[in-house]
Give the backbone structure.
Amino acid sequence: MQAVYASLTALPGVVVGPDDANELADGLWAHATQADGLEHVVVQAQSAGRVDLIMFLLGGAHPDPVRRAAALIRGCYSASGTLPLKYEVPAAPGPDRPQAGAS
């Protein structure tokens, strides 16, 4: 199993609350496929204007859990009618971003 940390940053003027964390978690589960390997997700709204996620992904054929998690988050974001109104567009991981460690 691999754990990946990510966060979404709220747009200016948006107040992040507990319902936002629930909405994001529900959206991830609704969007995830078996190939994504999403086993568990912890989502917590932060008073600093962001929502933090820890995604637990099953090991599998995908060699890069960070890219797999990022694709799942971006897909969920794109499919949502409300997330784009509240959060900045999630960035794609670049070559200089650290990779997740397996646990």
The mean pLDDT is 83. The two ends are 6 Å apart (CA to CA). DSSP finds three helices and three strands in the chain. Residues 13 and 86 are 9 Å apart (CA to CA).
